[in-house]
Amino acid sequence: MALYKTKNDLTENVRQSTVEVLQARLVEAIDLSLQTKQAHWTVKGPNFIALHELFDQLNDTVQEHVDAIAERIAMLGGTPRGTSQAVAGETQLAAYPVDIANGSDHVEALSSAYAAFGKRVRDAMNEVGDIGDEDTVDLLTGLSRDIDKSLWFIEAHAQAAS
Fold first, then answer.
1. Residues 22, 70: Cα–Cα separation, whole Å
2. Which helix (H) or strand (E) holds 45?
3. Whether this model's pTM surpasses 0.85
4. Architecture of domain 12-161
5. First vs last C-alpha separation in the chain
6. Which residues, including other chains, have CB under 8 Å from residue 149's CB and lie 6 or more apart?
7. CA gap 46, 12 in Å, rounded
8. Average pLDDT over residues 147-157
């Protein structure tokens, strides 16, 4: 993918490599947002309202990061690909089960998705750090913190049952 010209002082190689790492996280973040909304729309059971509201709040957090990732790609001269076709074709997250309704099943499915995404974000932080783009490491660090916090919120529902 060719980059647009920019006066950003990061080398073209650094920008290209960072854009590739960010694009992979972008499609996964969009996928995570869609999985969270699927849970929000379909959750049932005794904890319905608590989970319904939690899932909506978690989605809002993910959406803020989706925008930040896409804008960072553009800042570096890249073109963010956030279409449904790009997400479906490029995400590495497991498909969300669309046949579940029980709150505990959604908690299990979302906690797995958030944990997987959190690991991939931390891997990306290390990769971008090795590349030499500290500003993107900072962006990913904030994302990692928020994903860990979201995972904690989700898992608290399962931990209460044990």
1. 8
2. none
3. yes
4. Up-down Bundle (1.20)
5. 49
6. none
7. 53
8. 97
How many of the other CB atoms lie within 10 Å of CB of 84? Answer: 9
3 CB neighbour count, 10 Å cutoff: 15
Rounded mean pLDDT, 84-101: 98
Q: Give buried/exposed letters for 132-160 (b at 16+ CB in 10 A, else e).
A: ebeebbebbeebbebbeebbebbbebeee
Other CB atoms within a 10 A radius of the CB of residue 25 amount to 27
Q: Token pair for residue 158? A: 């399962």
Would you kindly state where each structural domain of the chain is located, as residue ranges?
Answer: 12-161
What is the sign, positive or negative, of the torsion defined by CA atoms of 133, 91, 69, 72?
positive
Q: 105-130 pLDDT, tens per residue?
A: 999 999 999 999 999 999 999 999 99
